[in-house]
Fold:
Amino acid sequence: MLVRILRTTRLVADGRHLAFTTLCRWRDAIYLAYRAAPTHGIVPPGHVEIRRREQHGGHGEHRWSLSGILRHPTGDVRDPRFVVSDEALWLVCGVYLPAAQHVAFQGLSASSGDNLIVTHVAYTTDGATWSALQPILRPQYWLWSVVPMAEAYVGAAYHTGRVGETSSITLVAGDRLEALLPL
Structure:
């Protein structure tokens, strides 16, 4: 199979660290999400920006616009992934949060293993207004991929553990994305 790049378009180039992209089609628009932060590191924390491409005018022209920004008041938001459903467009991401020993004096630690990772979700039903991030699963379980099935959402998460702990892979399922539980 031969693959050729037909064209490229730069959407954002503003000096920040922009990474961890995800792309999907939902309700006749294309959505792009990515992490934006001063650096790749956890400190200072980053957030997720969501852009939407829609047809503009009657001549096949397309325009990208900012659809939403997902922030956490104390955490570093990263690794967004879209989950498409008929009723909503979901975005799953990991949020590094300060562990109890760091909250009082410094917040997030620059070392990822010193923080908690908590999977969060947000959603839109109109493509323009996004819900606040809400946590799902237990701390240290990072939901990496989700597949909508006929009667449930099924996902694969990994247990990150602490330094020196064994990690594991866990399958989760739920009738609603925000209600996933280990299988």
In short: The first strand starts at residue 17 and ends at 26.
